[in-house]
Write a structure and sequence with these properties.
There is one protein chain. This protein has 315 residues and is of the alpha/beta class. The protein has three domains: 73 residues; 110 residues, Sandwich (Immunoglobulin-like), CATH 2.60.40.420; 90 residues, Cupredoxins -  blue copper proteins (Immunoglobulin-like). The protein is 37% helix and 20% strand. The strands form four sheets. Strands 4-3-2-6-9 form a five-stranded mixed beta sheet, with no helix packed on it. A four-stranded mixed beta sheet has the order 1-10-11-5. Strands 7-8 form a two-stranded antiparallel ribbon. The longest helix has 35 residues. The chain is elongated, with a radius of gyration of 26 Å. The mean pLDDT is 92. The structure holds dinuclear copper ion (CUA). The site of dinuclear copper ion has 9 residues, from loops.
Length: 315
């Protein structure tokens, strides 16, 4: 099974960081938790003393109130505040000059991902981001419709995608793995089915992936896949989707040039298998209410199957 095919291999934990930003946030979390635990223990201790203690003089009571009620909390909260504020600038800092830039546009309800290439061209894919261990990247985030928020808990903090603005997020993965990046801002009916899969691998592996993704689609080999391509063309799929190297050049929906190589489809809703592709093409509304993609359930099963075989073969 390919990575990310198994649900349990996909990490979405902010407390098991796999990126610089997430490491800072996790350490902040533990310091805050430790600090609040200390305050809680103090308060409980004083409460127990008040209930069971033998009492003391008026003076010692006043001292306890001044120290326990004002001095210690002020010092502790100031230290935690300073610690929290100090964590912000490195989280917002851009990556070193020359780092890769990747464009991500939030759409209802999927992530449009565009990789610019050194030669000035670029390629697009959907709901999947591939990075290399130790290579920082800058994400330029935009929205095509409403406010979305990208959150890859294992790699970094959240960043909103706001219509008419470009926001930035730096990612610096520190170990390989597959990480989930759900949309963290309610953005309509299928907000819950808008998940970015982030695959972090060795730099050489990323390089191979980039070369494959930049290449045009492979021509369908089997008669079934060829029939699927013909069905794809005659059904007008190319009005919304692009398959580079063919006449399909729509830009409304996800680019499908290498759709077969992705881990999931339908915004992370389904594992990428021929059977899921067939289900999705037939009844997208049932899986993602409100999706723009029209259902093709009126096609005979056999036609849907060849379509799915063709799409699955676009690796
Ligand atoms: Cu996009 Cu929630």
């Amino acid at each position: 099974m390919q990575p990310g095919g198994n649900l349990w291999e996909v990490s979405a934990s902010a407390l098991v960081p796999a990126g610089r930003g997430a490491e800072r946030i996790a350490s902040l979390f533990w310091w805050m938790t430790g600090g609040s635990l200390l305050v809680w223990l103090l308060v409980v201790g004083i409460a127990l003393y008040a209930v069971y203690g033998r009492g003391g003089s008026q003076r010692s009571a006043r001292r306890l109130i001044v120290w326990g009620g004002a001095v210690v909390p002020t010092v502790l909260l100031t230290v935690l505040l300073a610690f929290g504020l100090a964590a912000i600038p490195p989280l917002l800092a851009p990556p070193p000059v020359g780092s890769r830039t990747i464009h991500i546009t939030g759409e209802q309800w999927w992530w449009r991902v565009r990789y610019p290439l050194p030669d000035g061209t670029s390629f697009e894919l959907a709901n999947e981001l591939r990075l290399a261990v130790g290579e920082p990247v800058e994400l330029l985030l935009e929205s095509a419709d409403v406010v979305h928020s990208l959150w890859i808990p294992a790699l970094a903090g959240k960043m909103d995608l706001i219509p008419g603005r470009v926001t930035r997020l730096t990612l610096e993965p520190t170990r390989a793995g597959t990480f989930a990046g759900p949309c963290a801002e309610y953005c309509g009916d299928s907000h819950a089915f808008m998940e970015l899969m982030v695959v972090v691998s060795a730099p050489q592996e990323l390089q191979r992936w980039l070369e494959r993704q930049a290449a045009p689609a492979v021509a369908p080999a089997s008669p079934q896949a060829q029939a699927g391509q013909a069905r794809f063309q005659s059904s007008g799929c190319g009005a919304c989707h692009s398959v580079r190297g063919t006449s399909a050049d729509g830009v409304v929906g996800p680019d499908l040039t290498h759709v077969g190589s992705r881990l999931r489809i339908a915004g992370g809703r389904l594992l990428n298998q021929v059977s899921s592709l067939q289900t999705w093409v037939a009844r997208p509304q049932q899986l993602k209410p409100g999706a723009i993609m029209p259902g093709f359930h009126f096609l005979p099963e056999q036609e849907l199957e060849v379509l799915a075989v063709y799409l699955g073969g676009l690796e």
